[in-house]
Specification:
The chain is of the alpha/beta class. It folds into 3 domains: about 375 residues, no CATH class; about 100 residues, Transcription Regulator spoIIAA (2-Layer Sandwich), CATH 3.30.750; about 180 residues, Carbonic anhydrase (Beta-carbonic Anhydrase, Chain A). It is built from 28 helices and 13 strands. Strands 9-8-10-11-12-13 form a 6-stranded mixed β-sheet. Helix 22 links the parallel strand 8 and strand 9. Helix 1 crosses helix 12, helix 7 runs antiparallel to helix 8 and helix 9 packs across helix 10. The chain is extended.
């Protein structure tokens, strides 16, 4: 049903567009008039059926017309057919060895710029036909001759063109006729007055496919022949793959398989060359027309080739009923739509608009292949500049100077680095933060020379590296990775006591003073102490040192995110867990700021509604989370070895506040005892690990189940759960095995390390 409703009408539109384009490319290429039709049929049927894209339409490409014309002039037409065949074999080989995936590396700015440039070229050429004239050989010539063309008298040709454009503009605004694609409707409506006024521009199809000739081996220098084969294969292949990449951005159907597409193009060119046709390639215009006409599957592409074959063989005279002026107006309209400034605006934030406009201009002024090559070169140049960009910031605070270096530290950054370091006064205490993912030898030599000179002048340099230790490894002579490195995550989650702070002054020339894992990142030569000292000599606690580390490393990265959520919060979960210092909610759930609304207390207890003694703290958190923040999930997370549960099993410490609070856990204790006393009751499945069978950890898991029941005693929670707007879940964190378990119908089961879809 979808084929009849979408693909058949779309194939007719593409068919009507492809016929005049194929004929025009044949003339421009100096080939027999039927050669373009042969390529259109084979491109539609063969490449369409075998290709990797469901919407791409292949056929003779305007971008290859000048190349084919030169080959025909140099080798003759039949030898050109053999070059097409050999180029197809080369494309087939490249597709089989799966090299087409390299096209995925093409910048979207180049693709969109190519589409825009092709659209301008098409619009400029077709506007001459709409005005009753003939297009010139290049876009620039079309621009230069356009004023004279506009000034001439055109008669009925302009009427047909304006009528076609008018139908295209208003057709989609008529809801009752949207079943018929706008391009098809425009052509049919324009044919009526054209037939009545007798202003048809007919296409001469005399001779048909009988004019085809078989290929012959080209004569001449083998180097020229090989170069011609490579040129046709690469340009046709690149144009096809670029169009294939662009087609994926035009529709929401299955994504293209580039290797399969290149293989199909090779098969199509082998057959087209053997049958006397033009080279085949994926064509932007016909592909765009296919998508805009409503195509949903490859049936549209295949059928458009079938229609060309059937109509040329049996009903060739009917093609002449559609006026060329109407087809030209349709192509002009499509060409204008291909210049999508929305793509340019999307590229603005990534500073890629120059690539877009340079590619577009290159395609218009020089040619398709040349414009794409220029765009790719510019994209590569800008990418290189971005990859080697570095930021050096120098500032003074509290008597210490901080130098922060971010980016890739290469020889290109040495002048800027040395200029910034020269601003640091002699003898100053310096914190040098290297937030870099690469450092070459030139940058290291400049940095090391400055450091040694600064220390000889009485200053100190405290080096701290956020990424892999490029500087440290260079000092010690350790071989570093050849590639860029990712930011290390081996510090922030460690307890303070396990982090290596300031190291021995002799390191890295000697072994580090600690024999354990080297979790630290810095070369700290200012002092051997692991603590920051206050003015009065007392050591600051780890809390302040941790805050200092946050301000230095994490805050600059998080500041844009936190600034955006500084006015309000929108968490999706209320996370109720124990106050135990070993349970870090954001760590075990890999969540960040704004994800969890957390309520912590001893034993992760949820007092029942109207409980005695009452607890307004937990109740307030629940009410605010579900009533104001409108969270979708409430999670109760228990853990192994919970001290509150141990107190319930044994003697409660003589602490009045704690003793009163643990009254909210008596229901969990009663529930646990019922499991122990009843021989028929099954124990709740324990998590993997040695601690799974202890009485304490069984109570910890049962406590989670009981607190979920306690949540349902709150009317607001119960109403939302019953209506399906709120979900209650239970988690259990086994500290010894570092495993998170989730409560389901079978009890607590470990969360798998990989999803079922991986």
């Amino acid at each position: 049903m979808s084929v009849l409703r979408n693909d058949v009408p779309a194939s007719l539109v593409v068919f009507l567009v492809a016929v005049p384009l194929s004929l025009g490319i044949s003339v421009a290429s100096g080939a027999p008039i039927a050669a373009g039709l042969v390529a259109a049929v084979i491109g539609g049927v063969v490449a369409g059926a075998l290709g990797g894209s469901v919407v791409q339409v292949s056929g003779p490409a305007a971008g290859l017309a000048l190349i084919v014309a030169e080959l025909v002039h140099k080798f003759g037409w039949r030898a050109t057919c053999m070059i097409t065949l050999l180029a197809g074999l080369l494309q087939l080989l490249l597709g089989l060895v799966r090299v087409a995936r390299a096209a995925l590396g093409v910048s979207p700015a180049v693709v969109h710029g190519m589409l825009a440039g092709v659209g301008i070229v098409i619009a400029l050429s077709q506007v001459h036909i709409v005005l009753g004239g003939k297009p010139q050989s290049s876009a620039m010539e079309n621009v230069l001759t356009l004023p004279a063309q506009i000034a001439d008298h055109h008669g009925h040709a302009v009427l047909i063109g304006l009528l076609t454009v008018g139908v295209l503009l208003v057709w989609r605004r008529l809801p009752k006729v949207r079943v018929v694609p706008a391009p098809l409707a425009a052509l049919l409506i324009a044919a009526v007055p054209a037939a009545m006024l007798g202003c048809l521009t007919k296409i001469d199809l005399s001779g048909g496919f009988s004019s085809l000739q078989h290929p012959l081996l080209p004569q001449g220098e083998w180097f020229a022949i090989v170069s011609a084969v490579l040129l046709v294969a690469l340009l046709a292949g690149v144009e096809s793959l670029l169009t294939c990449v662009a087609s994926d951005r035009m529709h929401s159907g299955p994504r293209a398989n580039l290797d399969r597409e290149l293989t199909a193009q090779g098969v199509a060119n082998v057959i087209s060359g053997a049958c006397g046709g033009l080279p085949v390639a994926g064509v932007v215009v016909r592909t765009t027309t296919n998508v805009r006409a409503g195509a949903r599957s490859r049936w549209s592409t295949v059928l458009h080739g079938v229609w060309i074959l059937v109509f040329v063989v049996a009903f060739g005279w009917m093609i002449g009923l559609i006026p060329m002026e109407a087809l030209a107006a349709l192509l002009m309209f499509i060409g204008v739509q291909m210049v999508n400034l929305g793509h340019a605006r999307n590229l603005r934030n990534h500073r890629e608009m120059p690539i877009y406009f340079v590619t577009m201009a290159g395609v218009v002024v020089i040619g398709l292949a040349e414009g794409v090559a220029i765009g790719l070169a510019l994209a590569a140049l800008l990418a290189l500049l971005r990859l080697t960009r570095v930021s050096v910031r120098v500032r003074e605070a509290d008597g210490r100077w901080r130098v922060a270096v971010d980016g890739s530290l290469t020889f290109l950054a040495v002048p800027r680095l040395t200029r910034s370091l020269a601003a640091v006064p002699t003898g100053a205490a310096v914190d040098l933060d290297l937030n870099i993912d690469f450092m070459d030898n030139a940058a290291f030599e400049a940095l090391q020379a400055w450091r040694l000179e600064h220390e000889r002048g009485g200053g100190t340099v405290d080096v701290d590296e956020v990424h892999s230790e490029w500087y440290v490894n260079a000092v010690s002579g350790t071989r570093t990775s050849q590639g860029k490195t990712h930011m290390r995550h081996d510090q922030w989650w460690l307890p303070w006591a396990h982090r290596r702070g300031r190291l021995d002054p002799a390191w890295p020339s000697s072994a580090p003073p600690e024999s354990g894992h080297a979790y630290g990142a810095g070369v700290h030569d200012a002092a051997p102490s692991t603590d920051v000292e206050r003015a009065d000599g007392a050591a600051l606690p780890g809390l302040i040192e941790g805050a200092r580390e946050f301000q230095r490393r994490t805050a600059p990265l998080m500041r844009p995110l936190l600034h955006g959520m500084s006015r309000d919060q929108a968490p999706s979960h209320l996370f109720i867990t124990c106050a135990d210092s070993r349970v870090v909610p954001n760590l075990i759930t890999s969540s960040g700021p704004g994800d969890l609304f957390t309520a912590r207390n001893i034993g992760n207890l949820v007092p029942r509604a109207a409980s005695a003694p009452p607890d307004e703290s937990v109740t307030a958190a629940i009410e605010y989370a579900v009533g104001v923040l409108e969270v979708q999930t409430i999670t109760v997370c228990g853990h192994s070895g919970c001290g509150a549960m141990a107190a319930l099993l044994g003697k409660t410490p003589d602490l009045p506040g704690l003793r009163g609070w643990l009254r909210h856990g008596t229901l969990s204790l009663d529930r646990f005892r019922s499991f122990e006393e009843s021989e028929a009751a099954e124990e709740p499945p324990g998590p993997d690990g040695a601690s799974g069978g202890s009485r304490l950890d069984k109570l910890c898991r049962i406590n989670v189940i009981q607190q979920l029941d306690n949540l349902r005693t709150h009317p607001l929670v119960d109403d939302l759960v019953r209506s399906g707007r709120l979900e209650l879940t239970g988690l259990y964190f086994d500290i010894g095995t570092a495993r998170v378990h989730v409560l389901d119908d079978d009890g607590f089961t470990p969360v798998p390390e990989r999803s079922v879809t991986e």
